[in-house]
């Protein structure tokens, strides 16, 4: 890719100083096609770089986003694989159900992050069950080790 400075230098040499394209190619080390293309772009648009941005489509239709949001509220402790399986069952025609798409949709489209405290939203039964399963192994606080991978 040719830098913006080099693009402007190419246009200035051809348009302002009237240097032939073959000489500009030798001076700047770019192809003759690039020189003519950059000068044509400058003549038509007044710019040397294509500023058109790709229009991003939504990942999912609005009804899928609302269903995932309701599912996340109903089940605050879930795995991405569980959501993918539920989406496959609920919306069989939906073709972009990868783990990365689900993570992006949860974070950017729905505003849900994994950094939230799940304990606030956890079910009382789940907490009691966790304490019950941990009690045979735990007798004092120094036995617990927590790893933070952030």
Distance N to C terminus: 35 Å
Shape: elongated
What is the CA-atom radius of gyration, in angstroms? Answer: 29 Å
The SSE string, one letter per element, is HHHHHHHH
Protein name: Tc1-like transposase DDE domain-containing protein
Explain the overall architecture.
This is Tc1-like transposase DDE domain-containing protein. InterPro entries: Homeodomain-like_sf. This protein is mostly helical and 150 residues long. Among the domains are: 4-45; 62-113. 57% of the residues lie in helices and 0% in strands. The protein contains eight helices and no strands. The protein has helices spanning 4-16, 21-28, 32-45, 62-74, 80-90, 99-109, 118-121, 124-134. α1 (4-16) packs across α3 (32-45). The longest helix has 14 residues, at 32-45. The chain is elongated and about 85 Å long. The mean pLDDT is 83.
Which terms would index this structure?
mainly alpha; 0% strand; Homeodomain-like_sf; 57% helix; Tc1-like transposase DDE domain-containing protein
Describe the secondary-structure layout.
Blueprint: H1 4-16, H2 21-28, H3 32-45, H4 62-74, H5 80-90, H6 99-109, H7 118-121, H8 124-134
InterPro entries: Homeodomain-like_sf
Protein name: Tc1-like transposase DDE domain-containing protein
Summarize the structure.
This is Tc1-like transposase DDE domain-containing protein. With 150 residues, the protein is mostly helical.
